[in-house]
Amino acid sequence: MSHPFEVTTESAKLAPPAIVSLLHVGGMTPADWVTVLTLLYLALQIGLLVPRYLKQLRNYWGPSDES
């Protein structure tokens, strides 16, 4: 095997535990981070859906052009 491939492989194996360790050093447990990311995801989904639903309601309740 080539040396760069070995470095990449070993780095990929090390990444998940290193990320968890860094997050834990930040003062939050992995469960806390999952909660924060879930709430962020939920807020983004709500932020994307509310304007779409408001537009649909305006179109539904708006004046019709039927004469």
From TrEMBL:
List keywords of the entry alphabetically: Membrane, Transmembrane, Transmembrane helix
Q: Which domain of life is it from?
A: Bacteria
Q: Transmembrane segments in this chain: where?
A: 33-54
Is Transmembrane helix one of the keywords?
A: yes
| Protein name per Swiss-Prot or TrEMBL | Phage holin T7 family, holin superfamily II
Organism phylogeny: Bacteria, Pseudomonadati, Pseudomonadota, Gammaproteobacteria, Oceanospirillales
